[in-house]
Known about the structure:
heterodimer, A: 418 residues, mainly alpha, B: 139 residues, alpha+beta, Alpha-Beta Plaits, 5 helices, 6 strands
Amino acid sequence: MTAPDARRAIEAVFRIESARLIAGLTRMVRDVGLAEELAQDALVAALEQWPQAGVPDNPGAWLMAAAKHRAIDQLRRSKLLERKHAELGREVETRTERDLDAAIDDDLGDDLLRLVFISCHPLLPTESRVALTLRLLGGLTTAEIARAYLTAEPTIAQRIVRAKRALADAGVPFEVPRGPERAARLSSVLEVVYLIFNEGYSATAGDDWMRPELCQDALRLGRILAELVPEEPEVHGLDALMELQASRLAARTGPSGEPVLLLDQDRARWDHLLIGRGLAALERAEKLGGVQGPYALQAAIAACHARAHVAAQTDWPRIAALYQALGQVAPSPVVELNRAVAVAMAFGPAAGLELIDALASEPSLEGYHLLPGARGDLLEKLGRLDEARAEFERAASLTRNARERQVLLDRAASLARS
Amino acid sequence: MRFMVIVKANQDSESGALPDAKILTEMGKFNEELVKAGVMLAGEGLHASSKGARVKFSKGKKTVIDGPFAETKELIAGFWLWQVKSIEEAIEWLKRAPFDDTEVEIRQVFEPADFAPSDPTGEIRKHEEKLRETVAARR
């Protein structure tokens, strides 16, 4: 094996093992920051030794053993210090080592779930939760996260360091929350994963309309979660939603990278493997207690599109009803806007416009480019072309995405011509 | 990146006999690992080629050939589709599979972005679209 080959192989092993490694180590040392450092030390040891010795048969166990040795070294050192201060007995030390062994052999799945909950802890600001989750669970390097978010690497590095320190300072326990706290904490986890997906699905900044790599990272996290907490309908709802949305990734861009809207997409380019997975995940959510949560409801809406072989077959009345249900569990002007669009498709543009106009004074939608975009669309259908053009131009001035802006300006221009 | 992992046939798989319980259990565990890691998109085992058929295309002629087919080592007994970050990751996963005495092939699946360089202006695609429209109009 050449050196770069070996390096890539080791990095691949580390990507597979790192989350479990960090999870097991966090349980041992009760500090997610220290656990990650120990895992990194193990990676460095592998990079030193494997190119000559070859990748061991059980690389995960090798990395864990290497990290554990470092942990015990550190523990001894701190114990030595402690003994100097408090004259602790030798018994304490050996007992601690025995505990470490037991801790590692315990259920790794549980540790992974604890790591998920701690990375998405509501104590941390959202951007830190996202960075920490991608780092610890997604196995992304700081550089990869920085690239995905078009941010400088030191910014991400610092965000992660601060997050780890905040968790340590607050003494956040390494546990799976129980009781009433569990639902709130789980919803924070789902939120983080979906935020990552959305950043990839509809890049909020930059020249590219999508960053599919980030979608894949989120999907992988969603699939892992679906196995870790299989009893939660919303976890499958989120998985279903992401699978169904990702199924359209290839169809969402035209030849020169411009966005193609859902109803104009070539459905032959949808990924039917992902559609099948999405519908199966939605079915799992349904079996676990029906489609009631916001993710499962959104997935059910996406499924209406996925099931229609041509755009004209779309079940718009059902979509409008699902948006109404969504508006009840997760009220938001954006959901209302989408409901208005669905109502327009189901019952005509005038009915939709009425709902949209009711949103015009909504302060949270001020500056939201999709509102004038949707309004322009309905005005165009009603033959009110001058008003439609003005709305498209307004929408273009509001979006931060360069590709999207061009599409809106093109629509405005085509109305000016006609 | 998406990879297809192709498991070749052997005399056992071609005989139509089901794998023994031990192999099934081990393979089940491996599949579970793949699912838990969010790597597995799909995976299927195939019946013996005696239950299959081939269609041969030659100068406008189509000939159907019924299985079984002789060249056992060239045949496929099953496949997975995996979503991973790199071929190295696919290799590391495959090394964990409970196989013995066989060869398994890893091939990268084409994705839309792979086609982009050969169609930088989108002309080929536009041409295809026009074709499709013409066909639709004639119907």
